[in-house]
Amino acid sequence: MPDTTNKKKWNQYWRENVNKSVFFNTLVALARKYYFAKAFAKFIAGHYDVKGKTICEIGVGSGLTLSYLKKMGAAQCVGIDYSPEAIKFSSEQIKDCEFIIGDAFNLGRFGEKKFDLVYSLGFLEHYNKNEQKKLISEQKRLAKECVFIEVPYDIFYFRWLFALNKFFGRTLTFSDEEMFTPKTFQNLGLKGKSIPMRRTFYLTIGYFENVCEK
Ligand SMILES: C[S@@+](CC[C@H](N)C(=O)[O-])C[C@H]1O[C@@H](n2cnc3c(N)ncnc32)[C@H](O)[C@@H]1O
């Protein structure tokens, strides 16, 4: 099971306020804060009517996208992360959502279909195939209507960034994760809709599945 090493790294990442000592991480954090968090929220709201819905983000990190979804009219927004430092970071900045420490592999304390929408951003790609399958089935168990998964898109002009980060020995962000295509989602046994995301300049791909139709 996961992944005490990465848990320590994520904890350090959020404790140091996204490793300000690493210039690349500062850039990513600024891009998330001033562009991508809202772009993700708009993309989600463009495919799923969030008004009045209960929403959960798994691996919530900064909590910024969740907060945008709340402002777009969601009734209740809950973010879960296994890093206590992430939960401290997000709950200090964002007051209109709830943030809870929890491991995405073990969310048994939440009943089935607890939230209308359950989503993750930049999360699934950090795990191997078996783990990804477990995470997706846990995400589906919690969702009443819809699941959404956002991951890096395997497009030619993005590969250089991963290679560069690997070269510099960076970990976690755009370096040691998997890049996805629609086929990657199919290979995980998923039958919903995969959409390369124009709003993120095709750096990411989103997967939607309407679980209530099943
Ligand atoms: C790239 S960050 C996500 C950033 C976040 N979506 C945001 O908008 O700021 C991945 C997050 O997933 C969390 N995470 C990784 N594995 C987890 C697990 N098994 N359970 C809960 N959270 C996990 C990490 O602590 C980290 O905060």
Strand order of the largest sheet: 3-2-1-4-5-7-6
> What is the CATH top level name?
Alpha Beta
The rounded distance between the terminal residues' Cα atoms is 29 Å
Mean pLDDT across every amino acid position: 91
Sketch the major β-sheet: 7 strands, mixed
CATH superfamily: Vaccinia Virus protein VP39
User: In terms of structural class, how would the helical and strand content be classed?
Assistant: alpha/beta
Pick out the low-confidence regions.
none
General form: globular
What CATH calls the topology is Rossmann fold
Walk me through this protein's architecture.
The structure is a single chain. With 214 residues, the protein is α/β, with parallel strands linked by helices. It has one domain: 3-Layer(aba) Sandwich (Rossmann fold). It is built from 7 helices and 7 strands, in the order ααβαβαββαβααββ. The chain has a 7-stranded mixed β-sheet. Helix 3 links the parallel strand 1 and strand 2. Helix 1 packs parallel to helix 4 and helix 2 packs parallel to helix 3. It binds S-adenosylmethionine. S-adenosylmethionine binds next to helix 2, helix 3 and strand 2.
Main attributes of the structure:
single chain, 214 residues, alpha/beta, Rossmann fold, 7 strands, binds S-adenosylmethionine
